Amino acid sequence: MKKYVFSFGDGKADGSGSMRELLGGKGANLAEMTAIGLPVPAGFTLTTEVCTEFYRNNRHYPDGLVEQVKEGLGKVEAQMGKTFGDPTQPLLVSVRSGSRASMPGMMDTVLNLGLNDQTVQGVIDQSGDPRFAYDSYRRFIQMYSNVVLDLESAKLEHILEQMKEDKGVHLDTELSAADLKQLVSLFKKKVQEELGQGFPEDPEEQLWGAIGAVFDSWMNPRAITYRKLNDIPADWGTAVNVQSMVFGNMGDDCATGVAFTRDPSTGENYFYGEYLVNAQGEDVVAGIRTPQPINKAKHKPGDLPAMEDVMPDCYAQLVGIRDILEKHYRDMQDIEFTIETGKLYMLQTRTGKRTAHAAIHIATEMVQEGLISEKEAVLRIDPNQLDQLLHPSLDPKAEKQVIAKGLPASPGAASGKVVFNADEAEEMARLKNKVILVRVETSPEDIHGMHAAQGILTARGGMTSHAAVVARGMGKCCVAGCGELKIDYEKQQLTTKSGQVIKRGEIITLDGSAGEVILGDVPKVQPEVSGDFAILMAWVDKFRRLKVRTNADTPHDSRVAREFGAEGIGLCRTEHMFFEGERIQAVREMILADDLEGRKKALAKIMPMQKGDFKGIFREMKGLPVTIRLLDPPLHEFLPQTDDDVAELAAVAGVKFSEVREHVEALHEFNPMLGHRGCRLGITYPEVYDMQVQAIMEAACELVKEEGFEIVPEIMIPLVCHVNELRILRENAVQVAEEVCNRFGVRVDYLIGTMIELPRAALMADKIAREADFFSFGTNDLTQTTYGLSRDDAGHFLPDYVERGVFKKDPFVALDRAGVGQLVRMGTEKGRQTRPDLKVGICGEHGGEPSSVVFCHEIGLDYVSCSPYRVPIARLAAAHAALQEG
Ligand code: PEP
Ligand code: MG
């Protein structure tokens, strides 16, 4: 017969801590604590297999379960010296859920089970406290009626309130034993009335009712949603733990408490906990009474006496248990305990949740203490959690009024005055105002305003929209795709879903990690990247194989990225440089020029400025590889769109308004993302790419000649779909590069490679590799074109897709291994068939997303490239990938 019930108690346990899958987290840890000699009230666990079979067999329990439960109960009775249902020495039990992964508060629990009109007498005799006995009884009826019998909790709650009103009291604790006894009979009457059946008196019936309810709660909507959000499969099932009750509310020699073996917010090695005398667990959690600290180490004036003073023996025992648990589990534990008439019991232990800051402190300190290895320390830090440390974040203690929710496009938090256009953002920032730039969506024209703003809020666009990508690159917080906001440029205001109007100049706060828009200025806490963080990251670099570069377009971003450990630039987008200062005029002149001559004249003005940018970036990167991508967006993005702007340009350029308008219209495209952009521009206007290559090579030659630099620039051609595009553009680039080297009389080696960001390029990668020194996968466009999903429009409906489980994750956030990933894998393999030494990286937004980084490691890429603030996250994810390889 299969074993469905695992007992624990009195120093012996059928199960162990390693049986989490079968016993759930709580059951496994109760078994483990019992086995290592800690005082745990006796009990037993019904396995997760019972749950799976229960659902598989139409809510029938497997054969043999009833007998095994009876046997388990018998052992508990023997160990506790009490009998279930016995009127003189009654055993009361708790029935709790416990799945493999922690799902706090999602499933049901029943306490004080086994009470009826007879057994309550036994509890009175045992405790000598009728009030306590009837209070436990009425709590049991309330909980059981709600959880098992499905009676709306307000029905009984109402009777309790009525009773308090009748007696003229405010608190439950002011009701007498007689009141509570009367409450019990009123409750039962109500149950009979509402449900047409009496409250079950038979403890055995109660027990099976509660077990069934806990298994049922695995499928309640709350639990289903939680599983979806946390990637917990439904077929894991929950275990059920039946355990002897111990009471922390039987008098002043009783107490209950929760503690962390180290401080969960700072990680400090200090026993941090709270307890309440004469109370039950739910009183601590519910906040009805203020809990007291367990020790005096951090006593504040006004704190009530510590457990250390009030119950010194139990406290000393608890400190001993803390040490045993930390040595045993080798990690910070979150524990629950109860003291019943002077005797300490452990009710739970589990790995404690902690802030990123605490996680790093604990991991590094535990290495120093010899508890864990450097590898374990690295594996203990979740790369996603690092984000918390790299940006200012909202003070978790601060109050906040959320007025809208969008996508968490770029982490961090910022507050400022609302402004609706980029020029104004810049102007106000110059006057030392903090501003939040609010746009329907942003375009490259808004860069200066984004730069000047503390944060960016857009109504349209997804996780790879312009606003999101640029904000992440700048390390600025951004909430994108906040479709519920109505933005009115005319009236200079935004309106929330609830109709609240925020006008220009009013202050809002953005939480880019949560996607929240909040009213007013919310306090923040600053990031810290030295100390423990630096120690941990040094270990990270020892273990990883994948290199980590950054996406940076300015010397400033390059410096930030290097401080975060970037090993080069994987993508320098040159279009942003076109917008700076006066250049945009020259760029527009170039676009408006009628002939090649005119275009060349305008380009000659831009060239020295671009060269200056490249020199600045090369200098910052101190010889590390720098990949510069030639111009990608379609030309219309550089032209003004509104009539006012068109008029202004016409005046400056000395041409007619209609002429400029015509140009704008001529360049209009229905699908600019699939239009005249990327290398297609280079094919039709070779002089643009020639100018850029010249600027790159002259910058390199001057640095080599004047400053003794070693640089190998990597010139990257975007949006290639056919090898012939690359062949032509490569030939042009080589010609220009050689001309520059000859003119300067220095030899600068350079590489010419391509982005692989169209499905055809991945499919034809073996041919394309003939002309490419390196590949860099542009997984933003590759995702867009593989799915046929517009990067800028998908934000409207992708959240529904994820919500409804059509897609597990937003493919613009986490690389779709099965589809897009297959193209990346194939492109890499085919490219290396042609050139075994082909250097391959990825520079789409996925380069900083942990699960995508792991994939890049697995398929043997050389590097990932991501925005500066994600560099540490990618380094850590790369180390995880290497360490988990087995
Ligand atoms: C990409 O497509 O993944 C990429 C990096 O280029 P961009 O985002 O500039 O189109
Ligand atoms: Mg692209």
Description:
- The protein is an alpha/beta fold.
- Helix content is 45%, strand content 17%.
- The chain has 35 helices and 34 strands.
- Helix 13 packs antiparallel against helix 14 (374-380), helix 13 (356-368) packs across helix 19 (532-543) and helix 15 packs antiparallel against helix 35 (871-883).
- The radius of gyration is 33 Å and the shape is elongated.
- Residues 469, 571, 573, 632, 757, 778-781, 843-844 line the site of phosphoenolpyruvate (PEP).
In short:
The chain is α/β, with parallel strands linked by helices. The strands form seven sheets. Strands 15-25-24-17-18-19-20-16 form an eight-stranded mixed sheet. The protein has an eight-stranded parallel β-barrel with strand order 27-28-29-30-31-32-33-34, surrounded by seven helices.
